[in-house]
Specification:
Blueprint: E1 4-15, H1 54-66, E2 70-71, E3 74-75, E4 78-81, E5 91-94, E6 101-109, E7 114-126, E8 130-135, E9 138-146, E10 153-159, H2 166-183, E11 195-205, E12 215-220, H3 223-242, E13 250-255, E14 260-266, E15 276-277, E16 284-285, H4 288-296, H5 302-313, H6 317-324, H7 327-339, H8 343-364, H9 376-387, H10 393-406, H11 410-416, H12 425-438, H13 440-447, H14 454-464, H15 471-482
Parallel strand pairs: 12-13
Antiparallel strand pairs: 1-10, 1-11, 2-6, 3-16, 4-5, 4-15, 6-7, 7-10, 8-9, 11-12, 13-14
Helix pairs in contact: 1-4, 2-3, 5-6, 7-8, 7-9, 8-9, 9-10, 12-14, 12-15, 14-15
The structure holds adenosine-5'-diphosphate, magnesium ion (MG) and zinc ion.
Length: 484
C-alpha cells in the first residue's frame, strides 16, 4: 500500500430477534410462504397506526450499553421518504437526529494490534419487503413483492471510518457478531440475512489530512465477501489515484461471481430523503431504571471472559478462542468443570473432549451445544472416570458413543456392558505374566533398556481384557515383574 491508507466505515443492519415485528403483531419467522406474515400495518394500508414493540427498543439499548454507547433519554422516529416498491407507504420509519445510542466503541483485537473503533450511532428502523425478480431459474419480466420481512425491527450500527484494512473489517464484524450473540439481541445469522452490511471505502494519500472520496458497497451479507470486496475496491481506487484521476462518489455492488464491484448508481449528492419526525409515533422516553435493569442483564462479554479463562483454567489460546466463540460452549465447559471432582486436572481434558469429540458429533447431527444429548454432569463423570484410571481412553470413546445415543450416566453404561475396569491385582498379575511369556522378545528388549518395548506387552494385556484393564495398574504390575 505504501503511500495510501484505506479508510473504511461500516453500516451494519442487524435484525433484532423479537417474536413480532416493530410496529405490528405479525411474526418475524423466517422462510414462511410469501406474504403470510403480513397485516394492514406492515403492508402500509392508509389510516393505520403503528404501535411500537418495546422489546425491540430494549434490544437496541442493551446492544448500545454493551458497546459503551451513550443512551439518549428521549428519542424520536423519523420518516425517510423514498419511492421504492419494497415499502408501499413510500417512506421508511427510522431514526435521524435522535437515535437511541450514540458514541459507542468496540475494542478491536487482532494478533498484533488493539485499537478502538468508534461507533457513531445505533438506531432502530423497520426493514423493507423483498422484491423477487426470478421464479425458479426463470427471470421474470415483472417483479414479485414479498412483505414478510417488511416492518421487522432492525438496529443499524454505524461506525466511524476508522477501520483501515479488509482484515480489520472482518475482525470487527466477527467481534461485533460475537457480542450480539452473547447479548442474544439478534440471531446474527448472515445466511438468513439477519446481518447485512453497507461498506464505505475510501483511499487517501498518507500526506493528506482529509479522507478521500468514498464509495459505498451495498448490501453485503458474508464476512468473506466483505473482505474480498474491500480488497478489490482498495486496489481499484489505488489504480485510479495512481493514474492521477479522480474517484467519483458512487454506490457499487459486489459481484460475487466475477469478484469485482460494479457501479450501481451515482450517489446523487442531491438525494434528499426529506426526513421529518413521524407524527404517528410519540417520542421514546428511556428511564434510568430501564437502563439499569438492562445493564444488569448483560452477561460477561467475550473479551472479559477470555481474560478470566486464561487466569482460571490455564488453557492455550486456541482452546480459549474456541470455547469463548460461543457463549453456550463456554457455559457448557464451565458447568462441566464445576461438576468434575478433579477440577485442576480435568480442565484441559474437558476442553479437548468438548472441542473435538462433542463438537464433531453435534456438527454431524446439526445440533447446537444447547441440544447436546450429553449433559454437563455426565460429561464430568466420564472425564473423572478417565482421570481416576477407571477406564482407558479407548473405552471412554466407546462409552461416549453410547452416552450420546442414550443420554445416560457413563457408569450405568459401564455396568450394562460389563466394561468396568479390572482392578483386581491378582487377576491382572496372571494376565501380565502370560503377556510377558507371549512377548518374550519385547520383555527382553525392555530389560535391555528399550523403554518403549513395554507398549507391546501392555497392548497384549489390553487385548486379553478387551480394553478393561486399569492401565495404571498394568503398568505398575509389569514394571514390578520386569524389573525383578
Ligand atoms: P452518508 O450520508 O453518505 O450515508 P455518512 O457520513 O452518514 O454518509 O457515513 C456513512 C458511513 O460512511 C459511515 O460508516 C462513515 O464512517 C463512512 N464514511 C464517511 N466518510 C467516509 C470516507 N471518506 N471514507 C470511508 N468511509 C466513510
Ligand atoms: Mg449510507
Ligand atoms: Zn404486520
Amino acid at each position: 500500500m505504501n503511500n495510501y491508507e484505506a479508510s473504511i466505515g461500516l453500516e451494519i443492519h442487524v435484525q433484532i430477534n423479537t417474536k413480532s415485528k416493530l410496529f405490528c403483531e405479525c411474526p418475524t419467522s423466517f422462510g414462511e410462504i410469501p406474504n403470510s406474515n403480513i397485516c394492514v400495518i406492515c403492508t402500509s394500508q392508509p389510516g393505520v397506526l403503528p404501535i411500537l414493540n418495546k422489546k425491540a427498543v430494549e434490544a437496541v439499548i442493551k446492544t448500545g450499553l454493551a458497546l459503551n454507547a451513550r443512551i439518549n433519554k428521549k428519542c424520536f422516529f423519523a420518516r425517510k421518504q423514498y419511492f421504492y416498491p419494497d415499502i408501499p407507504k413510500n417512506y421508511q420509519i427510522t431514526q435521524f437526529e435522535y437515535p437511541i445510542c450514540q458514541e459507542g466503541k468496540l475494542i478491536l483485537i487482532t494478533s498484533n494490534i488493539q485499537k478502538v473503533i468508534n461507533i457513531t450511532r445505533i438506531h432502530l428502523e423497520e426493514d423493507a419487503g423483498k422484491l423477487i425478480h426470478e421464479f425458479g431459474n426463470k427471470k421474470l419480466d415483472y417483479s414479485l413483492l414479498d412483505l414478510n420481512r417488511a416492518g421487522i425491527g432492525l438496529m443499524e450500527i454505524v461506525t466511524e471510518p476508522e477501520i483501515n484494512s479488509a482484515n480489520e473489517a472482518a475482525t470487527f464484524l466477527n467481534q461485533l457478531k460475537n457480542i450480539i450473540e452473547y447479548l442474544n439481541t439478534s440471531e446474527c445469522n448472515m445466511e438468513e440475512g439477519n446481518m447485512r452490511c453497507d461498506v464505505n471505502v475510501s483511499l487517501r494519500n498518507i500526506v493528506d489530512k482529509k479522507l478521500g472520496t468514498k464509495i459505498e458497497i451495498k448490501n453485503m451479507n458474508s464476512i468473506s465477501g466483505i473482505k474480498d470486496a474491500i480488497t478489490y475496491e482498495i486496489n481499484r481506487q489505488r489504480y485510479i489515484l495512481e493514474s492521477r484521476r479522480k474517484i467519483k462518489q458512487e454506490t457499487r455492488l459486489w459481484d460475487s461471481n466475477r469478484k469485482v464491484t460494479r457501479s450501481m448508481r451515482d450517489k446523487e449528492n442531491t438525494l434528499d430523503y426529506r426526513y421529518f419526525i413521524d407524527p404517528n409515533l410519540i417520542p421514546i422516553t428511556i428511564t434510568e431504571t430501564l437502563i439499569k435493569n438492562l445493564n444488569s442483564e448483560i452477561p460477561e462479554l467475550p473479551i472479559l471472559k477470555k481474560n478470566r479463562f486464561y487466569k482460571e483454567y490455564l488453557l492455550n489460546e486456541y482452546d480459549i478462542n474456541f470455547l469463548v466463540s460461543d457463549k453456550n460452549i463456554a457455559d457448557y465447559f464451565e458447568k462441566t468443570v464445576f461438576f468434575s471432582k478433579n477440577k485442576k486436572r480435568a480442565t484441559k481434558i474437558i476442553a479437548n473432549w468438548i472441542i473435538t469429540d462433542l463438537m464433531t458429533k453435534l456438527n454431524e447431527n446439526k445440533l447446537s451445544i444447547k441440544e447436546s444429548p450429553i449433559n454437563c454432569e455426565n460429561m464430568a463423570k466420564l472425564i473423572d472416570l478417565i482421570i481416576n484410571g477407571d477406564i482407558s481412553n479407548k473405552i471412554a470413546r466407546m462409552i461416549f458413543e453410547d452416552m450420546y445415543i442414550k443420554s445416560s450416566d457413563p457408569r450405568n453404561i459401564l455396568r450394562e456392558k460389563k466394561l468396568l475396569q479390572i482392578s483386581d491385582k491378582k487377576c491382572l498379575t496372571e494376565i501380565c505374566n502370560k503377556a510377558i511369556i507371549k512377548n518374550s522378545k519385547a520383555a527382553l528388549e525392555f530389560k535391555n533398556g528399550k523403554q518403549k518395548a513395554i507398549y507391546a506387552i501392555v497392548g497384549f494385556v489390553m487385548k486379553e481384557t478387551k480394553g478393561c484393564a486399569n492401565p495404571k495398574l498394568i503398568n505398575s504390575i509389569l514394571l514390578e515383574l520386569l524389573t525383578k
